[in-house]
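User: Here's a chain of 307 residues. Predict its fold as tokens.
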Amino acid sequence: MSSKQYEAVAPRTVAFLGLGVMGRPMAAHLARAGHRVTVYNRTAAKAETWVAQHGGRHAPTPAMAAHGADLVFACVGNDDDLRSVVLGQDLGGGARGAEGAFAGMAPGAVFVDHTTASAAVARELHEAAGERGLAFVDAPVSGGEAGAVNGALTIMCGGEDAAFETMKPVAGAYARAVTLVGGPGAGQLAKMVNQTCIAGLVQGLAEGIAFGEAAGLDVKLVLEVIGKGAAQSWQMDNRGPTMIDDRFDFGFAVDWMRKDLALVLDEARRNGARVPVTALVDQFYADVQRMGGGRWDSSSLIRRLRG
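Assistant: Prediction complete.
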């Protein structure tokens, strides 16, 4: 259990949509911080289990979860999942949109999306929110499952100042940094920069470790040494030792990384950015998937180099 210390924030009525690997602990931090939490999950049993552990209540639709909430948070899988919980598409039952979160929110309420999704869907839903008198903040996170559990996520946000200032202290329950980086869609674009940087770092680390092994070095010792110099990174400190030990049954899955890199490559085609290394590493991850490693941690790139 996290030892997170919560800043004093006036209790708010909130909803959390999506209780997956990330959403479950994030919603738990909101409850521990004293907020009144209603949760929704596509698989209702997960929502029932969460309530049994953390209190609050669960609702059968996003609209019912969002009813009366000051802020509605979501962390789901992709653009289509996000449209589903926000607009009610593909949820089944009732008129189109009647079960989506926007249908249950009162004017002035703020929707905060923690999904790693496209900048295009963030702008689309920001516009749709404005038409309903709502606010929308795209707020993807970095830090992985450990960051969510420990309440130490980094959140990069896109949207309007007023909505950001409303969500920031509440999201602080599970974050160490919450920053507005620009207008609608900017949070998602910043997350793409994050994933681009990580992909290159992990491939470089994999090649360095594989090279050291082939050269007959004590690679753990080598990483200790170079980790005190310019080569140091979070990936080296946290994934270098597990890469050496060939352990990948944890962390941020290869399947998820490929989803994120597809967003980067799609956006690069639109904005003209040149990302040749990212495109190459994406294909290396495809190799790992073909090896059966779709659910391995993204540091498993080194498996390609070991044969």
